[in-house]
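WARN no homologs supplied; continuing
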Amino acid sequence: MTSREYLIRLKTSSNNNEKVISLRIFDDRHQSSEEIHLKSSINNEEFLINIKEKLNENIQRLKLHCNDRIFLESIQLTDLTTKQIFCFSVNDYLPSSPGDALELTEVQRNTFCEEQNQLQSIFQYDIRTKTGHQGFLGLKSAIKANIYIKFFDIFHQSSESIHLKQSRLHNQPFRSNQTDQFQANIKNKLHTLKKVELWHDGDKETRFHCETLEITDRNDGQIYCFQIKEYLHGNTKLILTDYENRRCLDHTSPFVKNEEVFSIASSFTPISTKKKASSIISSHATINQTLFKVRTRVGHTGLFSLGMGGTNAKVYIRLHEGENVTGDILLDNSLTHNNPFEAGHTDVFEIGISNLIKSPDRIEIFHNGKKHDGLYLKWIEIMNMNTLERKCFPINRWLDLNEGDKKTHVMLTGFITDESCEENEYREHHIHDQYKTEYLIRTKTNVHQPMNNVDSYANIYLKIYNTKTKHTEDMLLSNSKHQTNPFQAGKIDEFHIGSIHFMDDSIDKIEIWHDDKSDFNWFCQWIEIKNKKTGNIKCFGVNRLLSHKAIDGATKTTLTIHSHYPCEKIEHELQDLYDHRSMSKQQHYFSSKKEDFIKKYLITMKTGSQMFVEGTNANVFTRLYDEQNQPSEDILLDQTVTNKIPFGKHAIDEFHTGTRSNLSDIQKIHLWYTGEKHQQWIVEWIQIEDLDSHRTMCFPVNKSFDSNLNGKTRQMILTEFTINEPCSKISNEKKSLQLKQTYHVEIKTGKRGFLGLSPTGTNAKVYIRIHDQNEQISEAIELDKSINHKNKFERGQIDEFDIGSIQSLNGINKLEIWHDKSGIGHGWFVDYISITDNKTNEEACFFIGEYLNKENGGIEEKHLILHKQTVENRPCREHQFDGDELTIDETNPIKNLSSIFKQTYRIETKTGHSGLFGLNGAGSNSTVFIRIHDNNDQISEPIQLKHSLIHKTKFERNQLDQFDVGTREKLEGVKKLELWCEDDHHDGWRVDYIRVIDNKTKDSYCFYIDGILDDNSGLKTTHILLEYPSVNVPCSNEIKPFHTTLTKVTNSLSNENIERNFIIRTKTGNQVEAGSTTPIHIQLFDNQEQSSEDIRLKHHDHDKHNFEPGSIDEFKVTSFQPLSNQLVGIRVKHNAEKYQGWYAEWIEIIDEDNQKKFCSHPNVYIQILDNNGEKSEVIQLKSSTDHRKQFGRNQIDEFDIGSTKLLNGIKQLEVWIDGKHQGQGWFADYIMIKDNKTNEEVCFSIGNFLNKRNGGVTDNHILLDKETNDISCREQYIEKNDNDTNETRQMQAVQSINTSLNESVLTSQYKRTYHIDTKTGMKKLERLLKASSSRS
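OK structure emitted
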């Protein structure tokens, strides 16, 4: 096979000035040529081309598309080498949308296309009719008459009478509710059709009910659709003049509401008295005139739309185009009605005007009526019959001296193109019936938008994808009724669009593009999408030029990064994001076009169980090295072959890319990404295929990229690879060999409901992760093939699995489990999971006893993490208690619980009533917990009151419930009882009393309450501490008078050792999407290893959202757990959905009881400058080696750091804090740096606060010069704190050991390593007081 020359001949039927047809040729071995571009014109229909790609001599098929609408009849290829001829018949329009192509597979060999065309008449028409109901109730089968049709064009030429006889779809045509298709060949060529006559030869009583008539001109592809919906009698001809240039629908059109929406452009004329239309301005259009069709719609007004809206006055129009304007044109001869401009009528007029006006951009309309002779017009539509351009001018107003603005003469400037007025009217008023999901789209065009030519235009499309890979159709951003010329520089445009698909509120990505008609340029700054149903907003920053003239030549872009705030509100942040992107790409990537590549590659990459989270701005790069260590450019992996978002979980992505360097065989690759903290990504393998040499290299990876965790990296060099073996094959073969730990898993699916018949199983994919004793975590492991069952996870079934992990784990501490929700039902009910380590034979039991669903966790968006539970050397399956280990299942006898719990109790609760006659709601659906305090101040774990022994539904009004529970703490007696509800919906619970019975001693403890647990009423809290119980006294309402004093003490929660009051203040960052609309929870820790409960940060007096970007919020909270006066830490969490979060700058805790303030400490960053002016990367000082709480007052902290840059000495230091602090900032005495290689020790004195006033913050760094004297930093400050000197010497001794241990680790990662000392100082007043006390 060699390169070939072809002579290509096109046969078109339309004006094809400068239209480019793109062609690709395929042979019988499915080999493809490169894409060939043919510039078609009237005088150029033959092309001589040379195919560079090697093709066989037999052509099998073609693929074609065009940059604009063009009708192609045929395409003929002649192989100049073999003299073979290949003729492909087309007779269709070529697609112009990006990504679409017309594929031709029917080929005539060694036959000229002209000969093939001569076999057919060149004047062919396809005719489709839709017959309505024939006869009573549509039971009459067919019409007993012959149907005829006749065509008339705009120059009054006509066809012969055409007998519609042989239907191509049915043996017997014109049956009730039947669609028929006919082919008509006429002898003379017609131009654009003006009207059609339709009749039959039956008698007067014979009626033919025709709903629609569709005519397709096979010569130019023009379509005429006539909406009829009338009966045709035997003595009349139906004259049709009103048509739409679109296909009629076999079913009811979404744009046809009733018979009046499309007025029938017809008139019934007796055959014997038929006359030619006269007095119509355009009926004698000359060569110097342009024929227009004008359509008007008169509205209804008045009560029930039965009032008058028409007029008998004379109505005139003037057409404007630029500076050209017509004279007054009288609209008097309607082709559809004898009396024009009657209420509810659609009138059609034909006018002939000067050729100076071809596409009117304004219309004047007026009438000569007097008072009470007004006209209510809904719209006016004008169509050029030569170009078929249609413009609709909406009006919807009175032309009346007594109505509205009392004007009868108006100028219309707003119009809609490529859409009929009926379609626009329907879209405006019935859009809810047409679309299942509606959007309001706003776009902003950049002020630097390039100037387009006057005749430049394009269709702009949008496609939306949700997180479930479902997407909308291609949605056109067409002119709204408020915008006639969108996408102008600096302007914001609005579009109301919709999708016929049901789309949820999530958006994973969007695609936006234009079809690039006539060299159109669009510089889009941003696009905002608002779901009309939910009101939620997504803002996508674009800031790129969509044009063939752009650097990348792309007219289409895919966007994934978005914000939930309106674009106008975050425009400044979007600009920062653009700058960050452009800086990142300029630093790492040089964009080049594919045709510039010398070497081309197909890069395939497999992502593991962890992917990039949505909204990340991470960019993935690779650099290739050949045998001579010659590198390629930095290649950005962003556009996949399938144009999907890359690096999804378990996804395999392909990238067509290349390099301008002439590399030999690839020997190693450098892979990295630029991202922010907390960005994890696991890569299983990467495969490089050289498309020139057909050499495939597979590089196994199986490593985690992480920008935050120690021991993981954001870049790696890969040198081990295999040749010409696909990674997918190698991965499967070596998977078992890579496992470092193997396990045996046993899972029991539970039974629920009546007789245990409720659905509890699942068909979903189930995954687990194992957490070991050192907090190392395995990869995600799918529980795929059950050893003992073909269908796993069925009701009441125990399934077993043999699995493994590539991680070296130390024991089993926790289990993380979830499924992908692909099964049927509301979840999967799991009794327990048992995991046995095959190496140590350790069995870990995890009891669940719940459905894995959105509420309880255990789904992809909300993983369920379980702690290993104590089973006392018995297999998991021998335990029969509920998944909540603290709640005993009612089916278990109490006598067998001693092996599970050290103490068991019977809990009795009495729910009260409220309201008149006690009929108001008092029960609760909340989750209720208790915690027992014994006589020695020992406390049990939280215990949930879950399964009532008496009632199926617990805590109902006036109801007594009993629960069997247990604790693993060894308690003596019951002194106090904590009771609380987890209630986010203010579902208050009125409780009369709660009684605790110790099953061991048989003692009972009654705590009387008589209050409502509710934040907004009753006790004003959902968490109370009960004291002074009545021992061995029955609980009843009769004892209420004897407990009046005790009730007040109990309800007031006066125990000062337990109740602690705090004020918590938070600062939310200013970044895009820094805020949170989900609840934030905080937990406090003291210096005695005690902790508070989870405290929700929420105002009780209103429901407004807190944590807005840049805001400071304050909350008053109470803890009922014992805490000391010294807090040492906090834990913050939220229960947001996937991809949401909260960016907190600082959190301040104020202890109201002790008047103490605790604030989160700032993050300190440095950059080292060497003697050559080179800078290190930004280094955060974290993990002090000698203090748990770093940067404490008068404290020396030490850090071991490293730099990936090879620095020459230490000359200057740049230092700053990130603003996560309050007040005056961080007071630093000095920072000392020691180069571990040269032992050079440099001191930088500060002696001041780092804050906004003095400098040393994020937007105002301070630059320090090193001290020139030979005195170390510690010697300069030794006299200020003698005690600190002793501590320092001790820490130096310890540090010398730590440094020797860590130096080898740092050296392997960094080119330079350093030891840092920081000294946090005291304020001047504190120093004076300290000096004074030491002297005394």
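The longest strand covers residues 695-706.
OK
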